[in-house]
Amino acid sequence: MSAKRKYRLETFLPWDGAYVERHLEKMARKGWRLEKAGNPFWTYRKAEPANLHYAMTYFPTASVFDSDPTEEQETYADYCAAAGWELVSAYGPLQIFVNERPHPVPIETDEKEKLAAIHGGMKKMLLLPFGILLPLLLLTLVAEFREATRYAPLSFVSSDVQLGLLVLDGGLAAYVAWILLAYLIWYNRSQRAVEAGGACRPTGTRLRRIATRLFLAVLLVASAALLLREPVMWVALPLVLGLTALLMAAIFGCFWWLKSLKLSRKQTRAAYFAAAVVLSLVFRPVTQWSANAIKPLLPSSGHSPVSSYTVETKRSGDITYDIYQDDIPLTLEDLGYTVTEEDHCSYWGKEQSSVLALWSHYRQDAYGENSTLPTLDYQTADIPWTGLREWCWENLSGYYGPYGLHVSFEETDAAPWEADRAMIWPDSSPNLRYLLLYGDRIVVLTLGFTSTAEQRSVITAALRP
């Protein structure tokens, strides 16, 4: 902000005419006069404090892609000037006038025409863009939710990061839907009031400001949760937000640059949408490149391989495996298998928790070329919420393989596992997959062998709560 100009991020919605007028009059009394209303920033210039009157009107045939006011707008502005109303700024259908006279004649006196003009402007500035944005947000939200829960529901419900992102995406979709609904309710109420001979209804800005602040609070809480629970987010989150802000700045900058070229409305609109698409397509690889570039700066979780092992293959050449030595609760050794150095075994484990669940995943792999050790992979999830636990069980009971192939687990005898419930995947080769339920705990078990009664006893003792 310079000494003579002030730039403010204004969150007014296009139909908040009366509220905007009061705001601008208050700013003028403080010595700040509107110079330009844009998207998203409004520009104010320093001036002597004064009691001014502002009026916000709507010109539905105008467009944000117009480089200059249309001939009809100029005629309308000349008509208003005769009554002392000077056009200050125009942005698409929205026009803002100022009048220095003590008791100016209102620009709009017919409430029916006023409502029709507002609704005409809202079709372009609100209903069309938000009507397109909301389905896209909902489709993205559903797709992300299905992808996460279809293949890894236990990891999803135990991850503060994924839950936080779901809250952010869902909150944004809910906010957009609420804005649309708020306008439609206001319009219908105003329409009934005007038909009865009254005026347009107040826009209820106080309630909407509360909702906006609530949404921002949810955004901040979710972001804080990500930062506190995941140290890596201290670097990743600012990176994503910074790149997103850069993308938006590039899109807005391109928009204003195209308008400065004085092209026709159609040319500006076509060039703008083309530029927005290109910038959005470039955004993803730039984000990926930036993420790879900052990986050395990311906080270490302390979980790293202790060594590596390389195997020579005829088809794929050399393959290098990471060898972990994590402390895991159940090993092949516990089940009676002999493990040697030539097996090059890796013991890997991961644990994470959220307010909904505590999840652990462990695995023992043998990478030795001549090793005959079987697969051992198991997950446990403690979920105290009955409905959520049942939902996870149902999602796990259908296995999704390559190309979306769906195979349902089948019920099996739970007694050998001393479990409340047990299911087995019908395809028994090369590994046996089980779902086991012990009270609040779900166990996902993958064995590369047919277990004996003694081995099942060891497995049960290690994995049940």
Summarize the structure.
The chain is of the alpha+beta class.
Primary descriptors:
single chain, 465 residues, alpha+beta, seven-stranded antiparallel β-sheet, 10 helices, elongated
What shape does the CA trace take? Answer: elongated
Through-space gap between termini: 61 Å
| Spans where pLDDT lies below 50 across 5 or more residues | none
- Total beta-strand segments: 17
The radius of gyration computed from the alpha-carbon positions, rounded to a whole number of angstroms, is: 31 Å
Estimated helix fraction: 40-55%
Structural class: alpha+beta
Count of DSSP-assigned helices: 10
Secondary-structure element string: EHEEEHEEHHHHHHEEEEEHEEEEEEH
Q: Going across the major beta sheet, what is the strand order?
A: 9-10-11-17-16-15-14
- Largest sheet at a glance? 7 strands, antiparallel
- Average pLDDT over all residues: 84
Beta-strand content: 15-25%
Describe the protein's architecture and organization.
- The chain is elongated, with a radius of gyration of 31 Å.
- The longest helix has 41 residues, at 111-151.
- Helix 3 runs antiparallel to helix 5 (160-195), helix 5 runs antiparallel to helix 6 (205-229) and helix 7 (233-260) packs antiparallel against helix 8 (265-294).
- A hairpin with a 4-residue loop joins strand 9 (345-353) and strand 10 (358-366).
- It is of the alpha+beta class.
- The chain contains ten helices and 17 strands.
- Helix content is 45%, strand content 22%.
